[in-house]
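F.,

This is the one I mentioned.
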């Protein structure tokens, strides 16, 4: 057992290290994804839109009774700007707008489901 587990260590070589820690490295990309989904209501919104192909703002408000209209609108705009959801305006009166996951949003869902499974397999320790 004298062999080191090298795949768990940060590379020492400058070029290899930049691949992990540099501005276009793994850490930067994972940090970007975590920023995209951070926010109290972003994950509940994403999971609801994963369960339903499209939802109106009023449906989301009913499903998440503790969220305010302002916070819902803010998180929907941020998710839309990050390309995870799409807003569809029907141009009707009264206004009719629906939200749904984009292809990048759908491709993120297996990762979120894996995170859920990780959490189930590794419960919090008391204390």
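My design for it:
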């Amino acid at each position: 057992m004298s062999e080191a587990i090298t795949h768990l260590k940060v590379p020492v070589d400058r070029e290899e290290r930049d691949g992990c820690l540099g501005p276009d490295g793994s850490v930067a990309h994972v940090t970007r994804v975590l920023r995209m989904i951070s926010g109290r209501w972003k994950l509940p919104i994403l999971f609801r839109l994963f369960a339903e192909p499209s939802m109106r703002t009023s449906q989301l408000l009913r499903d998440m009774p503790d969220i305010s209209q302002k916070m819902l609108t803010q998180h929907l705009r941020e998710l839309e700007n990050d390309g995870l959801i799409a807003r569809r305006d029907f141009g009707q009166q009264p206004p009719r707008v629906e939200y749904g996951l984009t292809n990048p949003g759908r491709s993120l869902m297996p990762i979120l489901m894996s995170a859920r499974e990780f959490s189930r397999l590794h419960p919090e320790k008391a204390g």
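The chain has a mean pLDDT of 88.

Talk soon.
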